[in-house]
Design goal:
There is one protein chain. The chain is α/β, with parallel strands linked by helices. The chain folds into two domains: 2-154, Rossmann fold, CATH 3.40.50; 180-437, tm_1862 like domain (pyruvate-formate lyase- activating enzyme), CATH 3.80.30. It is built from 18 helices and 14 strands. The protein has helices at residues 16-22, 26-36, 41-47, 66-74, 90-102, 112-116, 118-122, 134-146, 210-223, 240-251, 269-277, 292-295, 303-307, 311-320, 340-349, 368-375, 402-416, 419-437, and strands spanning 2-8, 55-60, 80-85, 107-110, 127-130, 152-154, 181-183, 186-187, 206-207, 228-231, 256-261, 280-288, 324-331, 355-360. The protein has a six-stranded parallel sheet with strand order 2-1-3-4-5-6, with helices on both faces. A six-stranded parallel sheet has the order 7-10-11-12-13-14. α8 links the parallel β5 and β6 (152-154). α10 (240-251) packs parallel to α11. Bound molecules: iron/sulfur cluster. Iron/sulfur cluster binds at residues 189, 191-193, 196, 199, 234-235, 262, 286.
Length: 438
């Protein structure tokens, strides 16, 4: 059997004014490039589950038209092409899948979007994996061998795919192409932010064993002796006792790494102490909003709201331990009005962040936010998934016009990335790194 694992990532912003502005916003462009250049860990993991004797190929979808890619792929006689795609690239994935199928190649599609929209996806592909891929992959391959591929394969969200995870096939990568590799230590998140699809759609909160993480790290070190790793976790430090062990393990390797977490990491001094020594370069933390009223209801327990008054102090605690914080804000919550842009700027200026990211609220399918806006008739119709980029607007805001939100967002972007503010964040970063050396 010969299988192609094809990753389709890389998102293009649509708003032409923002696009033009983006050329002059180095911080924004750099982070977009990093995200676009990460390999798909989901596909590498499924490749690791293929039985011995299977010929497996991993490839990123190059920047070529779908018809060209489909013709080239069809010449290689794959028995199956497994595609993983983000919502913003899903139309391209559908287009490619249809062209491949017309050439007689069978196509399976999985990931967050396919899980949220299985009926839509199944109109374009031979089979859709709904939920995690690992629990159903073997059955799918058996069905393929028998010529009896089913239309959908459902994995229960409660099934623990991390209890005995396969080793991702890092060896398939053309390593020269990447400036970071991904490794997963945990999946899911116990918080339930209404805009977040990644945290719950595929799996309940699960952790990998340290032994499995060590195995994955060893495999990476074989192909890249001093790698930069991005943890493909939704929220890494949920379980603090396990996290302290994890960080010690990471610190025993010659690596630099980055991950996403919530601000409770600041509450564990032992964890913070070990983090800087472990090669942790930066933590990305969702601060979500500069307005407490907008933060209210973001998740059901309002834990994030209760952190609001502590943001400055907790960010200082993390950065004083020598770990840079990339604070993320979202614009367009229902309580946001035109004052939110200046408020975000003023609030973030006072936090001493060493990096900052702003995005537009995006109603990804499968989220509570998507369902609510759909019910209220506020989603842009007909839907244009290509605009689900985090930087393009896809719904009618509650307390301002669409134009006000888009213009305010662009204004905030240009202010956040002025040379003076960029220099200030770099100075904050240098101060943070000085703490690390003490
Ligand atoms: S804390 Fe982060 S990962 Fe968890 S639900 Fe909220 S946005 Fe998602």
């Amino acid at each position: 059997m010969k299988i192609l694992f094809l990753a389709m990532s890389g998102v293009r912003v649509h708003d032409p004014a923002l696009l033009e502005l983006g050329l002059t916003l180095p911080g924004f462009v750099e982070r977009s490039r990093v995200i676009a250049s990460l390999p798909s860990l989901g596909l590498l993991t499924l490749a690791g589950l293929c039985p011995e004797g299977t010929e497996v190929v991993y490839r990123e979808m190059d920047d070529v038209p779908c018809e060209v890619a489909a013709t080239e792929i069809a010449k290689e006689n794959f028995d199956l092409v497994a595609i993983s795609s983000l919502t913003a690239r899903i139309e391209d994935a559908y287009d490619l899948a249809e062209r491949l199928r017309s050439e007689g190649v069978r196509v399976v599609l999985g990931g967050l979007h396919a899980t949220a929209m299985p009926e839509e996806a199944s109109r374009h592909v031979d089979a859709v994996v709904v939920g995690q891929g690992e629990p159903v992959w073997q059955t799918l391959l058996d069905d393929l061998r028998r010529g009896a591929l089913q239309k959908t394969y459902h994995a229960a969200r409660a099934s623990n795919a991390l209890s005995d995870p396969p080793l991702p096939r890092y060896d398939l990568l053309d390593i020269e192409r990447y400036n970071r590799l991904t490794i997963q230590t945990a999946r899911g998140c116990p918080w339930h932010c209404h805009f977040c699809a990644a945290s719950r759609l595929l799996s309940d909160y699960r952790k990998k064993s340290l032994a499995h993480i060590r195995r994955d790290l060893d495999a990476i070190m074989e192909i890249w002796p001093k790698p930069f790793l991005e943890l493909a976790d939704d929220n890494t430090f949920v379980d603090k006792a396990w996290s302290r062990e994890l960080v010690k393990l990471l610190g025993s390797y010659s690596i630099h790494w980055f991950t996403e977490t919530d601000i409770s990491v600041a509450d564990d001094p032992a964890l913070l102490d070990d983090l800087a020594d472990s090669g942790c370069a930066q933590l990305l933390i969702g601060l979500e909003s500069a307005s407490p009223i907008s933060l209210g209801g973001v998740e059901r327990r309002d834990w994030k709201l209760r952190q609001f008054d502590l943001y400055r102090e907790k960010i200082a605690r993390i950065q004083d331990a020598g770990i840079s914080v990339n604070g993320c804000f979202i614009l367009g919550f229902d309580h946001d009005d035109e004052s939110i842009f200046e408020r975000t700027l003023e609030f973030s200026d006072g936090l001493g962040l060493s990096e900052m990211q702003i995005t537009l609220l995006t109603p990804f399918p499968g989220t509570d936010l998507h369902r609510a806006l759909d019910r209220e008739g506020r989603l842009h119709r007909p839907v244009n998934w290509r605009k689900y980029t985090l930087f393009d607007l896809n719904f009618r805001p509650a307390r301002m016009s669409e134009r006000q939100l888009e213009e305010g967002f662009r204004w905030l972007m240009s202010e956040v990335y002025t040379p003076a503010r960029t220099a200030q964040r770099k100075a904050n970063l240098r101060a943070c790194l000085r703490h690390r050396r003490q």
